[in-house]
Every structure is written in structure tokens, then in C-alpha cells.
Amino acid sequence: MKKIILLLAIFLTFFSCGKSGDAIPDVAVNFSAALTNPSISALNVPGGAVLIAGYGVAGLILYREADGSYAAYDRCSSYLPQNHCAVTLDPGNFTCTDPCSGSKFSLIDGTPVKAPATTALRSYNIVVSNFEVYVTN
To answer: For residue range 4-13, what is the model confidence (pLDDT) as tens digits?
Structure first.
């Protein structure tokens, strides 16, 4: 009986953690740009956000927070990430939306604010130094 319970516990541990492919893939990100670059000039003011194509899984979102700090996220939605659905910025730049599922995410910390997503967007390291933005993982 103990062996059956042990086998059942092992089975539940391996198969209840989610399906394979439920995580945003881990890809190398190495982006840099000058803050004077017109394509990212929105980052010069708090609440500014920009979309960057060609990096990460589905592109990047760079966001300047109200306190002047910065955040960087992969645009790949955390809800069914294997679909590589890229989130879009919402008016006001405080949230972004997965157009495939309707999930919404906060740009302050990447957490979901509207279901069905339950996991935050993948965040990246962002450093601003000498008027240059660097995003890495």
C-alpha cells in the first residue's frame, strides 16, 4: 500500500506542474540604444513605453516608471506562450493586452491584472547609463 501511495505521489508531482511548453522560452537578449534615438524617445518621460521588435521571443516592451526607474519585458504573453502572441500597449501605457486571450498585464511589475493569464511577463535586466539603455538577461 505504501508503494502505491509513493508512486501516486511521484506521478502527481511530475504531471501536476503544468504542460511542457507553458513557460516563455529563455532566449538571449542583448539590446542597447541611445535615449536620444527618436524610436525610444517616449522613455524620456515617466509613464513612457516603447515596443522593440526583433529581440526576445516576441519583441520587448521598455517602460519608464513614475519614480524614474525602468522596466523591460518580453512581449510574449505568459498565457499559452507557445503561441508567441505579442502583447500590445494599452492607452495610457499602464497596462498591455494579449490580443489572443484578452489577458492584461501591469507595466509596473509585469503581473497579470486580468485573466486568463496567471503568470507575469518575462522581465529582463535594464540599465540606463550615460544616456544609453541596455537590456539583457
So the answer is: 333 333 333 3
Q: For residue 110, give the nearest of 120, 100, 96, 125 by alpha carbon.
A: 120
Q: Is residue 13 part of a domain?
A: no
The enclosing H or E element of 9 equals helix 2-15
- Cα–Cα distance measured from residue 45 to residue 11, given in angstroms and rounded to the nearest whole number: 51
| Under-70 pLDDT residues of the chain | 1-22
Q: What is the pLDDT of residue 78?
A: 96
Four-residue CA torsion sign, 97, 120, 22, 54: positive
- Residue with the three cell numbers 513612457: 48
Q: How many CA atoms lie within 13 A of 115 on its CB side?
A: 1
How many domains in the chain? 1
14 is a domain residue: no
b/e sequence 103-132, b meaning 16+ C-beta within 10 Å: bbbbbeebebeeeebebebbebebeeeeee
pTM: 0.82
